């Protein structure tokens, strides 16, 4: 039993392995893509390799057979030295270590990102990884440009900003010794409907308040480029005056765009760049300019006047879109801080969510909390590291995995971020770059990685493996390519113009299709040429020859043969037909896949002339009974039908036990019945169609037998040797038992009577005792009794 179980297990494992292998072969991407050269092959998948052996393929076999998994090529007897499968690599070209915190360095010499230059060699499907380290430096320089809304509603805020320069400079010195501050202001475009263009309103745009505190409206003004002189900031801001406009949204996006792209005019350094945007209103964006007749989209360029003060193209270009503004802020490494009032906090919070490395803070009604707001926003921005990269060429994908200081590992959309980075903290990012196909036509290109808000960049050079090394050693006009009709390259022929075929043996004038293999494949889709049993020669299949001359492969695609038909009893087509194209063509009196079924039904005719006795169907010359209880060649025998036991019990009784009504004529009447005597009968579950019988003889004994059919369909009776007879009664024991029973019953009755009498007497005695205790006797004298004593009382006696 254990051996059988082991065999079944081994068979199941083998079957599963075969199915797995077959499934793997059916999904072989290397073969399915029909690569015609080594370069095409290695672009199909990372596991695909090319065999460069000159005699690897047979006559008429496609060169695409050279492209397969490396292990498969070796199994197909391609020498390992001729298996071409180039690999990608990572090479670090410049790696200046990140700066030590204890070393005071000029801004241009501070290193926070390492390495600085990496070269990746990419093969399709083989991602390359390298690690990027970021270490936050101490005392890193900061440039802060304060951009303020000077519409009339910001009048009280301006008073607090006028003394912002020196106070903010003192606070920022706690963070960095290299701090510069600048100031710019904005209102809106100077056309209707944003402002009133009447001369009076242009001169006096404020509807309330004294006229002398209100200046003419403007779009954007660069009041003070970045400087380390806080007193100068206070002085120039103190000279600013409020202006006015008509609608609530302001032209802040115009101002932000100019402040971001006018790098030289604002005097931005390659350090941390902060742009504080202070307002109490919303913003105009792309499309709003059409209300004022401005239809040209914003070009994202600097348009300040020669003095670098006023925006000159405000009424010429539309407002920038949100996406355009985000792009320019990112390109110029500027981190915006939105300082807005409570009413518009939610609006700018949504805007901040769209801009990486941005912050939003709630400004008090008078901007009195602006310094604390800026300090908190700077700390939040500088403690977060977000990596980004320039757009790679098509077919190249870049992904990140961050290893932050708390031990957390993040992938996907958050893989390029780490938060809560303090000065001196070091984090690592794993960068994975993958390519598909041959990006950028195989030309070397570059992408840049950087951390938002910091000026450093990492240069990543990309080289693409689009050809094999053997490509450069090809032999032009090689004699191996049909007398010089092609270049022998990587073991295969690259045909000259006008020639096709594995060895360039075919002319395009002779072959209708440029793909000569298409006509040698089924439905032009199968990767198997000529059904795997022939060679494709100039678009026609030449079928293989068999060792046995009588076995032939034929057909336009070598899809037919005369030796793979079904067999019956080890004989092809049962010896009653011939094999044509993989199928049996049977003789007239036989049918079936293997011609093993006679068409005649004579063998199924029962003794009553009916087919299968009317209880079955004749299938392939044999009766298939409709009910399993019917057996025999023609369904005439029913061993389990009622009456079978009674029919055979007399013969069983006479042949085995020499008794019964047929004892005298047993040899004559029961001669044909096959009766076998045995010690123990088979159980019902051990044999199909086995009927168990039992009968009682004249001795009142039970005998048991079974009835079934043997292998030849003849009745077979098996009889249990030992009958089951009732035992004779023991008279003495019966009498003794009866007497003992009577005596015991009498004694039991006496005991019961004695017990009942005792209980009765005790109850009567208890009743007597109770009545005796409760009896009450009269203690008076006899009424007829007279006492002999007479007492006389003297009336004069006073008791003295």
From TrEMBL:
The chain crosses the membrane at residues 731-753. Residues 29-79 form the PSI domain. This is Integrin beta. Residues 645-730 form the Integrin beta subunit tail domain. Gene3D superfamilies: 4.10.1240.30, Cytochrome c1, transmembrane anchor, C-terminal (1.20.5.100), Laminin (2.10.25.10), ligand-binding face of the semaphorins, domain 2 (3.30.1680.10), ntegrin, alpha v. Chain A, domain 3 (2.60.40.1510), von Willebrand factor, type A domain (3.40.50.410). One of its GO terms (molecular function) is laminin binding. The keyword Lipid biosynthesis does not apply. Residues 37-468 form the Integrin beta subunit VWA domain. It is found in: Cell membrane; Cell projection, Invadopodium membrane; Cell projection, Lamellipodium; Cell projection, Ruffle membrane. Keywords: Calcium, Cell adhesion, Cell junction, Cell membrane, Cell projection, Disulfide bond, EGF-like domain, Glycoprotein, Integrin, Magnesium, Membrane, Metal-binding, Myogenesis, Phosphoprotein, Receptor, Repeat, Signal, Transmembrane, Transmembrane helix. It comes from the Eukaryota. It comes from Petromyzon marinus. Disulfide bonds join 30-468, 38-48, 41-78, 51-67, 206-214, 262-302, 438-693, 466-470, 481-493, 490-530, 495-504, 506-520, 536-541, 538-573, 543-558, 560-565, 579-584, 581-612, 586-595, 597-604, 618-623, 620-666, 625-635, 638-641, 645-654, 651-725, 670-701. InterPro entries: EGF_extracell, EGF_integrin_1, EGF_integrin_2, Integrin_beta_N, Integrin_bsu, Integrin_bsu_cyt_dom, Integrin_bsu_tail, Integrin_bsu_tail_dom_sf. Residues 1-22 form the signal peptide. Coiled coil: none annotated. The lineage of its organism: Eukaryota, Metazoa, Chordata, Craniata, Vertebrata. It is a single-pass type I membrane protein. Belongs to the integrin beta chain family. PANTHER family: INTEGRIN BETA SUBUNIT, INTEGRIN BETA-1. Residues 754-800 form the Integrin beta subunit cytoplasmic domain.
């Amino acid at each position: 039993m254990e051996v059988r179980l082991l065999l079944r297990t081994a068979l199941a494992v083998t079957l599963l392995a075969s199915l797995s292998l077959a499934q793997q072969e059916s999904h072989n991407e290397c073969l399915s893509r029909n690569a015609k050269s080594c370069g095409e092959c290695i672009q199909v998948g990372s596991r695909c390799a090319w065999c460069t052996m000159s005699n690897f393929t047979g006559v008429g076999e496609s060169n695409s057979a050279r492209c397969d998994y490396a292990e498969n090529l070796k199994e197909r007897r391609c020498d390992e030295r001729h298996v071409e499968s180039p690999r990608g690599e990572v090479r670090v070209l410049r790696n200046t270590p990140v700066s030590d915190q204890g070393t005071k360095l000029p801004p241009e010499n501070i290193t926070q990102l390492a390495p600085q230059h990496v070269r990746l060699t990419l093969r399709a499907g083989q991602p390359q990884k390298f690690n990027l380290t970021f270490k936050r430096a101490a005392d890193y320089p900061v440039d802060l440009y304060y951009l303020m809304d000077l519409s009339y509603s910001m009048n009280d805020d301006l008073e607090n900003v006028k003394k912002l320069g020196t106070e903010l400079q003192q606070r920022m010195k706690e963070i960095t010794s290299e701090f510069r501050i600048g100031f710019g202001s904005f209102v809106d475009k100077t056309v209707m409907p944003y402002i009133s263009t009447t001369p009076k309103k242009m001169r006096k745009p404020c509807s309330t308040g004294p006229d002398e505190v209100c200046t003419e409206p403007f779009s954007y003004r660069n009041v003070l480029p970045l400087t380390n002189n806080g007193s100068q900031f206070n002085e120039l801001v103190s000279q600013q005056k409020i202006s006015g406009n008509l609608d609530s949204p302001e032209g802040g996006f115009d101002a932000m765009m100019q402040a971001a792209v006018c790098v030289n005019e604002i005097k931005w350094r390659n350090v941390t760049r902060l742009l504080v945007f202070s307002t109490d209103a919303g913003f105009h964006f792309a499309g709003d300019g059409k209300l004022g007749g401005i239809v040209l989209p914003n070009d994202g360029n600097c348009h300040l006047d020669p003095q670098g003060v006023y925006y000159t193209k405000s009424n010429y270009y539309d407002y920038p879109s949100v996406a355009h503004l985000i792009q320019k802020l990112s390109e110029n490494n500027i981190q915006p801080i939105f300082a807005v009032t409570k009413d518009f906090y939610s609006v700018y919070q949504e805007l901040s969510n769209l801009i990486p490395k941005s912050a939003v803070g709630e400004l008090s009604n008078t901007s009195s909390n602006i310094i604390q707001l800026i300090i908190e926003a700077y700390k939040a921005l500088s403690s977060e590291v977000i990596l980004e990269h320039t757009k790679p060429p098509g077919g190249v994908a870049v992904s990140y995995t961050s290893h932050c200081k708390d031990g957390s590992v993040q992938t996907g959309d958050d893989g390029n971020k780490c938060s809560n980075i303090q000065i001196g903290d070091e984090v690592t990012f794993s960068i994975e770059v993958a390519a598909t196909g041959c990006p950028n036509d195989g030309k070397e290109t570059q992408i840049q990685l950087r951390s938002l808000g910091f000026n450093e960049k990492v240069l990543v050079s990309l080289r693409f493996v689009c050809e094999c090394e053997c490509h450069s050693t090809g032999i032009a006009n090689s004699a191996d390519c049909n007398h010089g009709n092609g270049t022998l390259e990587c073991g295969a022929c690259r045909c000259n113009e006008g020639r096709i075929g594995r060895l360039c043996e075919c002319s395009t004038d002779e072959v209708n299709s440029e793909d000569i293999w298409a006509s040698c494949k089924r439905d032009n889709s199968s990767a198997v040429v000529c059904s795997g049993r022939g060679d494709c020669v100039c678009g026609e299949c030449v079928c293989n020859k068999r060792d046995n001359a009588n076995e032939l492969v034929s057909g336009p695609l070598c899809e037919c043969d005369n030796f793979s038909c079904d067999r019956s009893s080890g004989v092809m087509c049962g010896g009653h037909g011939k094999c044509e194209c993989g199928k049996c063509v049977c003789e007239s009196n036989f049918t079936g896949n293997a011609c093993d079924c006679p068409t005649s039904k004579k063998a199924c005719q029962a003794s009553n002339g009916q087919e299968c006795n009317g209880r079955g169907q004749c299938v392939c010359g044999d009766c298939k009974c409709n009910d399993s209880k019917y057996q025999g060649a023609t369904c005439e025998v029913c061993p389990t039908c009622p009456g079978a036991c009674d029919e055979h019990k007399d013969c069983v009784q006479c042949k085995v036990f020499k008794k019964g009504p047929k004892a005298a004529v047993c040899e004559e009447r029961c001669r044909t019945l096959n009766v076998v005597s045995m010690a123990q009968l088979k159980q019902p579950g051990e044999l199909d169609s086995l009927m168990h019988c039992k009968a009682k003889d004249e001795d009142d004994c039970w005998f048991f037998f079974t009835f079934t059919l043997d292998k030849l369909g003849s009745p077979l009776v098996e009889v249990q040797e030992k009958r089951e007879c009732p035992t004779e009664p023991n008279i003495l024991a019966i009498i003794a038992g009866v007497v003992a029973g009577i005596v015991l019953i009498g004694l039991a009755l006496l005991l019961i009577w004695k017990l009942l009498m005792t209980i009765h007497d005790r109850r009567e005695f208890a009743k007597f005792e109770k009545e005796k205790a409760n009896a009450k006797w009269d203690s008076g004298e006899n009424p007829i009794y007279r006492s002999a004593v007479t007492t006389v009382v003297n009336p004069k006696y006073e008791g003295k």
